[in-house]
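By way of example, we now present a protein record of this kind:
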Amino acid sequence: MKRTQGWLVAVPAVAAAAGLLFAASAFTADGTDLRSTTTDLRTLVADRADEVEDLRAELRELQDEKAELDEEIQDAEVEEARTQVAQLERPAGMLPVSGPGLVVTLDDAPPERLDDPGVDVNLLVVHQQDIQAFVNALWAAGANAISLQGQRLISTTGIKCVGNTVVLEGVPYSPPYRIEAVGDIEAMRAGLEESRSVQVYTDYVEAYGLGLDVDESTQLDIPGYEVTPRLQWAEPIE
């Protein structure tokens, strides 16, 4: 009788313990086979590797797109710069200009004037400021292009007087000095007549025999500026 009662107590206890174990296993496995943990880990690693490879492929695509966009932007910037250069070439004097205009020729006084007593020889030769006076007057009168001794003059051109010669872009020239200007002939003639500096030269023409000829031309061909412009000092305009 006592054995029967013991089994009656033990069996339910064992069943309850087994039920707890089954429940714990089911909760831990969450519907999966606990014995396949190694296989699932390998699968997880493989899945992660595939995801990483997909992300790398997407990154490469984005990098390729970026490189294409950079190239397009660079090409656009280069093209814009080329357009700006092309627009500035003519006003900057880089392109040849043809048309009607004036030819001004300046020359030293005849050699026999050197025999005049008490005359300063510096008054008998053409100086840099004389050439500059005519060039400035022509610019002010609206000349489209100007050349001196066949060389194109631009805003940065320097005319220097060295002895009895004039140096232009490092090249020395002797008189007579030929200035060609393409533009409105009447406007340029009026500009020369109104220039005080030009009038000073004409006074010396009368007093000392300096050479001066102003001729009209229906067709002048002025070349483009052939030297690369160089600015030694420049400040932005506010």
Observations:
- Strands lie at 97-107, 145-148, 151-153, 159-162, 165-168, 171-173, 177-182, 211-222.
- The chain has two domains: 13-92, 93-222.
- The mean pLDDT is 80.
